[in-house]
Design goal:
single chain, FAD/NAD(P)-binding domain, Polyamine Oxidase, Chain A, domain 2, eight-stranded mixed beta sheet, 15 helices
């Protein structure tokens, strides 16, 4: 039956490609257009999986990636000591597509044996051990909030207000009243000024839609329950890192052996010469008979359908005709993207033995969060300094060497015991990646109601994939979900 369906789909697409007239090529010495059935723009996990899904049905497909690296926001820094992950790093227990692809492509999944060391807090100019936080004078929150660790204030409060039960509830008009800013929701529910201040540092999304973050929280809790994770593990400020299945030795979270980049590389290898790198798309021109795609290097392609698996921050730089209109145009040109910047390094000496505080720490000043992790296979403990939102934007303004110098001096200022005991290795900010311009999308208040449903509706011959086009999942699984959906849409039209 599968073979029969492949033949039918292959014949249908071939017939449409051969029988329909094509728009004339422009004069002026332009390169002849390469013909195919489907063009996928973007070589992240969503675009790669979309292309692979189409190729599985013998559809002629080409994938165009603007950079010289495959993987998008799945990016293992192989050239850096300790090989940090600049983007995606974990395969959750309910990531069915990711697990399937790893099995199919012989990409090895290994238990996540990383161990996050305990967290201290530097708040209102005072160091407070986590165990003393609830009773500390530095904790200005009232009774009912004081027990919440500083890093978890925003997300814990939002979770308490979350009415969503199903993973698609966020798209239902029933919950449109929650499509307001987190700040507005918190104030309406009596959250204290002290909690709002901490939440603005620990959760850089106070001006984003509460509804979008509630959906992510619901999905996180689903992932935890799917694995039978011990109670409270989903409330970790860094997700399910190292979480254990209750009563089992297997971890709730797994990593890809050798780094996350190995998965997109394996998909690209399976696609072979269908993948073209260094192809920055400049124009997509569609008519009733097909689509003409032009790249900055002059190369041209013609296809029946096009899939944009690029973030809207990139798509808005591509000339698309017919033009986007209505809510979809609002989505393409107004959906925001959040930056995340991380500095990576190794701990040369255990500075916490000198000051008696927990190794990892949060501050309400320039430095947001420094995490120290035991990472299997590495002799020394590794650390990362995490900046998000406006703090990331400010750090991104500096050249890397100046940014690292500032970060190191600020850490030493608030915690002198670290001086000379941290060795920095690299710094990476997704806002500075010109083909991405942010680590992830972020709905502003009202935007889910305004265009979340319409933003992924096919635009003539252009379909949409990418993590921003998800409906149910998050992380790597969200990218794969959207690529699979776009492929199914095209197969249905064929």
């Amino acid at each position: 039956m599968k073979a029969r369906r492949r033949e039918v789909l292959k014949g249908a697409l071939a017939l449409s490609a051969l029988s329909l007239p094509w728009p004339p090529l422009r004069s002026g010495g332009a390169l002849a257009a390469e013909r195919t059935s489907v063009i996928v723009i973007g070589g992240g996990l969503s675009g790669l999986y979309c292309a692979l899904s189409l190729a599985d049905f013998d559809v002629d497909v080409l994938l165009l990636e603007g950079s010289n690296r495959i993987g998008g926001r799945a990016f293992t820094a192989d050239g850096v000591e300790t090989r940090p992950e600049y983007g995606a790093s974990e395969v959750g227990p309910s990531y069915a597509r990711a697990i399937y692809l790893c099995s199919r492509l012989n990409v090895n999944l290994i238990p996540d044996r990383r161990k996050l060391l305990p967290i201290s807090n530097f708040v209102n100019g005072t160091w407070v051990a986590s165990s003393n936080w609830a009773a500390s004078n530095a904790n200005k929150m009232p009774e009912g909030e004081r027990h919440i660790p500083p890093l978890m204030v925003g997300m814990r409060l939002l979770s308490d207000m979350n009415p969503l039960e199903n993973l698609t509830d966020w798209l239902s008009g029933e919950f449109a009243s929650y499509d307001v800013s987190v700040r507005e929701l918190f104030i309406k529910n009596g959250v204290s000024e002290a909690a709002l201040r901490l939440a603005s540092k620990t959760m850089d999304t106070l001006n984003s839609s509460s509804l979008a973050l509630m959906q992510e929280r619901t999905r996180t809790e689903y992932d935890a329950s799917y694995a039978g994770t011990v109670s409270g593990e989903a409330d970790s400020p860094f997700g399910l890192i190292g979480g254990q299945n209750e009563g089992e030795d297997a971890p709730a979270v797994r990593n890809i052996e050798g780094g996350t980049s190995r998965l997109p590389e394996a998909i690209a290898a399976a696609l072979g010469d269908r993948v073209r790198t260094g192809k920055i798309v400049a124009e997509v021109a569609m008519s009733k008979s097909g689509a003409d795609v032009r790249c900055l290097d002059g190369s041209r392609y013609r296809a029946d359908f096009v899939v944009s698996a690029a973030p809207f921050s990139t798509l808005r730089n591509i000339s698309v005709t017919p033009r986007f209109a209505g809510p979809q145009a609002e989505a393409v040109f107004r959906l925001g993207y959040r930056g995340t910047t991380r500095a990576f390094g190794v701990v040369e000496q255990p500075y916490w033995e000198d000051d008696g505080l927990e190794p990892s720490f949060f501050t309400d000043e320039t430095i947001q969060t420094l995490t120290v992790v035991d990472k299997p296979g590495i002799d020394k403990r590794v650390f990362s300094v995490i900046f998000t939102g406006p703090d990331a934007a400010r750090i991104d303004q500096l050249p890397n060497d100046q940014a690292l110098a500032l970060i190191e001096s600020e850490i030493a200022r608030v915690r002198p015991s670290t001086k000379g005991k941290l060795r920095f290795l690299s710094l990476y900010g997704w806002r500075n990646n010109r083909l991405v311009q942010g680590c992830r999308h972020m709905f502003a208040p009202g935007q889910i109601t305004q265009f979340a449903q319409e933003m992924i509706v096919p635009h003539h011959r252009l379909h949409f994939a990418g993590e921003h086009a998800r409906r149910v999942d998050f992380g790597m699984e969200a990218a794969l979900e959207s690529g699979e959906r776009a492929a199914q849409e095209i197969l249905g039209r064929a």
